[in-house]
């Protein structure tokens, strides 16, 4: 999927769920790592994380609906921020996602020797330096993915 196809998809979702046209452009932004998308207030374009193409289509659609909620509410002059009631009501009405699920899988799995608490991390930990947050026991590396 390229940026033009993504823009057509967003336009289609906007008309279907919001009954309003989407008049700006959508881009894939590979610099997004932990977020699914971003709505820009200054020029009204939307960035989408390309990692969403590797997960379920329902998650991609949910993120697009989330960003379209920001877009339409901002253009109408209503509350477009996450904490605003207008945003929460519209997001629930269209079935958008409140949070993006984890897009990258953790690379390291640690476990406490004492209480068996699991820790999943993207970066390697120094097990001599860090301890379990639950019981202060020692950690061991279970699996290096």
From TrEMBL:
Domain of life, per lineage: Bacteria
One GO term (biological process): response to stress
Domain SprT-like: 4-142
Protein's UniProt name: SprT family protein
InterPro entries according to UniProt: SprT-like_domain, SprT_Zn_ribbon
Species whose genome carries this gene: Enterococcus cecorum
């Amino acid at each position: 999927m390229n940026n033009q196809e993504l823009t057509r998809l967003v336009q289609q979702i906007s008309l279907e769920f919001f009954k309003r046209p989407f008049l700006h452009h959508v881009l894939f932004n590979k610099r997004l790592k932990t977020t699914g998308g971003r709505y820009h207030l200054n020029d009204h374009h939307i960035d989408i994380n390309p990692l969403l193409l590797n997960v379920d289509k329902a998650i991609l659609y949910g993120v697009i609906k989330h960003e379209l909620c920001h877009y339409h509410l901002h253009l109408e002059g209503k509350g477009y921020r996450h904490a605003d009631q207008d945003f929460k009501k519209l997001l629930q009405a269209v079935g958008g996602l409140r949070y993006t699920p984890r897009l990258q899988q953790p690379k390291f799995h640690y476990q406490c020797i004492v209480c068996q608490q699991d820790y999943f991390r993207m970066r390697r930990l120094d097990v001599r330096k860090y301890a379990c947050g639950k019981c202060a026991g020692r950690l061991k590396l279970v699996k290096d993915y």
